[in-house]
Hints:
Low-confidence stretches: 256-261, 299-305, 322-329
Helix content: 25-40%
Distance between the termini: 121 Å
Number of strands: 6
Mean pLDDT: 77
Largest sheet: 6 strands, mixed
Shape: elongated
Number of helices: 8
Order of helices and strands: EHHEHEEHHEEHHH
Strand content: 5-15%
Amino acid sequence: MPTILLPASAAAFAPRATPNIVLNTKVDPWLTATLKRINRIKRPLNSVPQHFRCLTETLSSPSAIWTLCSVMLPKAPDAELRKDSNPLIEALFNYQILYIEAYVVHVDMVSQNEVAFKLTPETIEALVEYHKDIHSVDTSASTWNWSEKEVQLKKLQEDFVQAANKFVYRTNATALEGLEEDGAGELLSGRSEEVKAAIMGLFLPLLPPPPRIVDVVRPTPLLPSSTGAENWWQPTLPLSHTAPVDSWKVVPSSPSTTSSGDSSSSMWATIGLNELQLPSPTPSYSQPYTTAAHSPTQYYSSSMSSAPIPQLPLPSMMQQQCSTSAGYGGFGWENYQSFALPYAM
Length: 345
């Protein structure tokens, strides 16, 4: 985007001067019709220099003041406004209309095709007075107090003075169609709303400083005392114990004279069936449950040797009670002399 240069008269606090006008090599018909309409004395407008001279003299006139818009502002701070049940009476006694007036400082119909307006000193003074006496009071009352509040409020007023003096409204050059006699005029095609929004945007609120971030000091966690040291290494989850196996489900790999008996039966009697999870045996062999006493035929049968042995816990993981007196309940070891031994004594 090219840099747009304005004349020195458009700078802040600069006095009014002759507007800077740049016309194209061919004048637009709407500009010719506008100049003919506002001139009381008929003058020829057949060339670009004639249009330039007529437009310069018209806009340089002291009476060439444009009304950009009008704003309604309160007459006093909010705490001093009159309260009435009739809103019409409140509007009449509490509000005033301020006309935003400006003059032309720049006309460019070659590169930017725009016209620039600068606020009159009277309008700037009225805006500064309203900002200091009313707006500053209201915005100060709506914020909490802090140590540098007055300094910030004074700076806010100084910034507004600078912004009001620097304010320049720029719009399309066709806005000159609102030109009237003696160079005065009004903005057309809804441009007044743009100026009003821009003027009200100059009134900034007083912003308090952000709250300070307070560091939260968290207490250092205390180490457990020596009295509780015995609980440090205790696991959080209970150790898994291998569930014992019911005696009637145990299929020994070889006959043993000390693996079953009354003491073993009393030990397994307190164990439930659901406390052990073992893989199901293959369908090739299943030993039926019986409460009868065990016989040597059951232990020395050849069909038992072909049955798969389920995975059982190691002997070290089980607590066995062995005794030389085990097995007298149902095996009949008191008649051991009647069994034929495979070897000689």
